[in-house]
Each structure stands twice: as structure tokens, then as C-alpha cells.
Design goal:
Elements lengths: L1 E6 L8 H6 L2 E10 L9 H10 L3 E7 L15 H12 L7 E3 L16 H19 L4 E4 L1 H7 L12 E4 L27 E3 L5 E2 L5 E7 L3 H7 L4
Parallel strand pairs: 1-2, 2-3, 3-4, 4-5, 5-6, 6-7
Antiparallel strand pairs: 1-9, 7-9, 8-9
Amino acid sequence: MIRLLDASRVQGRLDALALAKLGIRGAYLKCTQGNEPGVDPTFAANRDALRAEGIKVGAYHFLYPLPDDPAAHPGRSPAAQADAFFRAAGLLDLPPALDVEWPAPENFPRWPGLTNVNACEHAIATLTEIDHLFGRTPVVYTYPYWWKFADGQAHSEFENYPLWLADYSRFAAAVPPDGAAPLAVPAPWSDWTLWQHTGGGMRLPNGDPVDFDVFNGDEAAWCIFSSGA
């Protein structure tokens, strides 16, 4: 089993050596967010420290899929968000990832003009831009409740991008056994690539809660996925 974690400023500076000793092989770090200027303050230091210990690193952008309106929402178009992400990410091993989970379904009415349809269309446009800038197919992070509400299964284009599924319904507070998998894979995907199996149910050596993930593949597949190419 190939184990990963994902982290942001919430976890602060990571103890890269301790994580390597725990057998963590990869990490996705929050890099940028669609409604915030600048970069996650822990991103660069954690990226460099983890890579120095041989842990493969990827970056993710938290998408704000607001309708394009340069006057009301400057810098939030798919092109602008992808460009900010690309400029901040630097040297990576894992493919870039797009976090597609905002806004929470109950908060959609707060944003006039934002619908489940244009949220998905905005995500697809951003993925296209990320693919072009990084030269690598990005990963889509999402969770089943949001995906069902947003009717993501109706957009076949998402199938072109590997799925990183957050699903805590199994093994939420333990390392899943070999061969374990999420209960269900949402359409249009037929399989998953990464599975976030905890939502803070496990802890780092310093006691901070963290999300842990596993990769769906053998060593050969992991080498290809984490090659930086």
C-alpha cells in the first residue's frame, strides 16, 4: 500500500523526517485558493522539506467556481486561478490537483448566478487551463455529497482526469488494509486514483489531525504517477 497525506496551513510546518519514517510516500499540499491572494504560507517550506526526505510532493488549488465577472470577482476566472496556481507551485513530483468542493450545497443560494451546472463548467475550464500550463493531466479532488448535489456525473469531461475521492465511510481512523477501496466511485469515473480515507481522524507525530490518503496502484503505477513528467 502506498500511503500519502494532504496538508495545509492548518497543520503548520510538517516533520518531514518523522513522516518518512512512518512510511508516507507522497503528500499533496495546499498551494492556492480562488478567493485569496498569495500562497498558503506553509506550502514552499513543506514542499522543500518533504522532497528532501524523498517524499513525493504535489500541490492543489482550492477552486472558487464563481461566474466570470471581472468587475465583481477579479482574478477568479478559470484562466486566472490556473495561472496563479501554476506560478506558485514550483517543482512538483505528483500531478497538480484541483479541489472541487465549494461552495457547500447549502450555501449555493448565497451566490447569485452560481448553479451546479456552471460550477461544473467552471471546474472543467480550470482543469483545461491547468493541464495546458503544467503540461500534466490534473487530478480532481471531490467528495460524494458535493458531487451528487452538483450533478457532476452529468459532465463526461471529468472522466479525462484522475479521481481523488474523499470518502470517510470506511476505515476513517485507521490505515486501510491492502485491497480496501471506497464504497462507491461516482460517475463519470469507473475507478479512483487517490482515496482520502480520513477527515482528520488520524494524527501527525506532533499530534495535529491530518487527512491521510492511499494510491490505487502498484509500485510501477506509482513510479509513473509520481515521476514529475
